[in-house]
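Message: I would value a second opinion on how I read folds in token form. Give me a protein, with the fold worked out from its sequence. Write it directly below this note and I will take it from there.
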Amino acid sequence: MMVPRVQGVMDLRESKIAQDLADAEAARGQADTTEAAWTARMDAARAAAQAEVAKAKAQAATAAETQMRAADADLAERVAHHDVAIANAKAAAMVNVQTIAAEAAQELVERLSGVAISPEAANEAVRRQMTHG
């Protein structure tokens, strides 16, 4: 009589252990599925973040390139303006040099030869000399 009771308890215990193992296996399967879904979401989020970083870098590079082009254009305009100013100053200086040279030539001719020449003739002689060397 005792053996069937012990056998019943043993069968019940064995059944409980088998059920607990099945529940644990099901929980592990669910945990694996949850982990796989989480990993997939994290991978997608990481990829999206990397895409956003790449987009931001590209936008920053484009903005920097635009600023560089604008700065280059501004500098080129300034250089051109200064080149014109230098050319104008040089031309004005050359006119002054030509005037001074004509006056000096006029004075030298008069001192050396006693002949007075007109300012126009002195200017023409200096102009020809400066043009043809």
About this structure: The radius of gyration is 50 Å.
